[in-house]
Amino acid sequence: MRKRGYSLAEQLLDTLEERGYRSTSPRRAVANVIAGQERHFTAEELREKLPEVGRATIYRSLKILVDAGVLCRVLLEDGNLHYQLSHRGHHHHLLCVECGASEDLLGCDIEDLLQSVSAAHGFQLSGHWLEVYGRCQSCLQTQVPA
């Protein structure tokens, strides 16, 4: 996604503009905060960092960026929806239930299985979303034996 010479915030704004949305001051603020995130984040965390930006602007910007493939949604085990930058195409996530680390899981090999299961039930598949929960290698190594 990174264009040479452009900051990540500028690239996020370019994505919004390519989809017909103006680069307003609130959207620039949202892009700047997203660009500074090192981990996954929630819409409410953005709201806390941007109290001057309306809730609708934050959620609308997140939806546009997810639809554009620039952000991806991450559903944590506790049901909370988070977002993170998406540097690749279609992928899933390995999520650590202890430390919250997220790792992209590339190579979606379940498409054929989903197509056949859907067809067997007379269902037309339009997409899927998979999160895999467990413990990361770091947490496993620091785990105290029982």
Structure description:
With 146 residues, this protein is an alpha+beta fold. The protein has two domains: 1-87, Winged helix-like DNA-binding domain superfamily/Winged helix DNA-binding domain (Arc Repressor Mutant, subunit A, Orthogonal Bundle), CATH 1.10.10.10; 89-146, Dna Ligase, domain 1 (2-Layer Sandwich). It has helices spanning 8-18, 25-35, 43-49, 55-67, 111-120, 137-142, and strands spanning 71-75, 81-85, 92-96, 102-105, 131-134. The chain has a three-stranded mixed beta sheet, with no helix packed on it. Strands 1-2 form a two-stranded antiparallel sheet. A hairpin with a 5-residue loop joins strand 1 (71-75) and strand 2.
Under the CATH scheme, which architecture of the largest domain would be assigned?
Orthogonal Bundle
The residue-averaged pLDDT reads 86
What is the count of DSSP helices, taking H or I runs of 4+ residues?
A: 6
Question: What is the total number of structural domains?
Answer: 2
Number of strands: 5
Strand content: 15-25%
* Helix fraction bin: 25-40%
Q: State the CATH class of the largest domain.
A: Mainly Alpha
